[in-house]
């Protein structure tokens, strides 16, 4: 299935939803610390559900997605507040990330294939500046997509290892059944994560 057909229903139905709770929590924490808005990277940004609120708050955002058409929609949605927006049309696995205050990967990082994940994670960890934050979702092994080609899942102890050395501010395991934007019931096993670099 092409990236286009797979995610176009997502864009239409869920892509313009409210920012993720993980992202909002991280923003609250930055604001409580009075840390000025800096550079954020939104990996697999789609049409900008999380990018837009960051731009509105004065962040500069590297918005990265493999689909140029999603980035074009994001650019339209961001105007005229788009001066801090940098669009990167590429795969997460190929990106060389700049030093960042905030790295977001909402419902995207589990789409990095297992054999590429470690390198991608190392790149994210090394991009994160001191005091910077990560906000993301990962999939757990009881997710219905576990075992599909190209999908990466993490057991609890593997999540521990990924987060080693970070201050974990939110870690929530969710197991639920919900209808996907493509109208199909799906069993989800999710990790919702917010963590801060020392
Ligand atoms: C489920 S959508 C999530 C979009 C957005 N982060 C949100 O929460 O609304 C996943 C997005 O990741 C993008 N994506 C999937 N795999 C990717 C990859 N390997 N590299 C770059 N983008 C990818 C898709 O094009 C899609 O826009």
Short note summarizing the structure:
The chain has helices at 3-13, 21-32, 51-56, 68-78, 114-127, 156-163; strands at residues 39-43, 60-65, 85-89, 100-105, 128-139, 166-179, 185-197. It is an alpha/beta fold and 198 residues long. It has one domain (3-197): Vaccinia Virus protein VP39 (Rossmann fold), CATH 3.40.50.150.
Description:
The chain has a single domain (3-197), classed as 3-Layer(aba) Sandwich (Rossmann fold), CATH 3.40.50. It contains 6 helices and 7 strands, in the order H-H-E-H-E-H-E-E-H-E-H-E-E. The chain has helices at residues 3-13, 21-32, 51-56, 68-78, 114-127, 156-163; strands spanning 39-43, 60-65, 85-89, 100-105, 128-139, 166-179, 185-197. By secondary structure, the protein is α/β, with parallel strands linked by helices. The chain starts with a helix and ends with a strand. Helix content is 31%, strand content 31%. It has a 7-stranded mixed sheet with strand order 3-2-1-4-5-7-6. The model has no long low-confidence stretch (mean pLDDT 94). The structure holds S-adenosylmethionine (SAM). S-adenosylmethionine (SAM) binds next to helix 1.
Question: In percent terms, what proportion of residues is strand?
Answer: 25-35%
Assign an overall shape. globular
Under the CATH scheme, the architecture is 3-Layer(aba) Sandwich
CATH class call: Alpha Beta
Tally of structural domains: 1
CATH superfamily: Vaccinia Virus protein VP39
CATH fold-level name: Rossmann fold
| Count of extended strands | 7
How much helix is in the residues? Answer: 25-40%
Question: Ranges with pLDDT <50 over ≥5 residues?
Answer: none
What composes the largest sheet? 7 strands, mixed
Our Rg estimate from Cα atoms comes to 16 Å
Q: Ligands in the structure?
A: S-adenosylmethionine
- Terminal CA distance reads 40 Å
Query: How would you classify the helix and strand content by structural class?
Result: alpha/beta
Strand order of the largest sheet: 3-2-1-4-5-7-6
């Amino acid at each position: 299935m092409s990236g286009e057909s797979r995610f176009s229903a997502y864009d239409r139905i869920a892509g313009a939803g409210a920012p993720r709770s993980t992202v909002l929590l991280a923003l609250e924490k930055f604001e409580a610390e009075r840390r000025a808005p800096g550079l954020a990277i939104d990996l697999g940004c789609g049409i900008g559900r999380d990018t837009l609120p960051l731009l509105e708050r004065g962040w500069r955002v590297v918005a990265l997605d493999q689909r140029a058409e999603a980035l074009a929609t994001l650019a339209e949605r961001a105007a005229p507040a788009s001066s801090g927006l940098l669009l990167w049309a590429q795969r997460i696995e190929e990106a060389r990330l700049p030093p960042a205050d905030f790295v977001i990967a909402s419902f995207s990082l589990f789409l990095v294939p297992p054999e590429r994940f470690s390198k991608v994670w190392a790149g994210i960890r090394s991009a994160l500046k001191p005091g910077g934050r990560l906000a993301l979702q990962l999939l757990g092994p009881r997710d219905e997509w576990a075992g599909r080609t190209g999908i990466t899942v993490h057991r609890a102890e593997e999540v521990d290892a990924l987060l080693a050395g970070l201050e974990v501010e939110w870690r929530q395991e969710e197991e639920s059944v919900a209808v996907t934007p493509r109208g199909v019931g799906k069993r989800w096993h999710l990790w919702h994560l917010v963590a801060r670099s020392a």
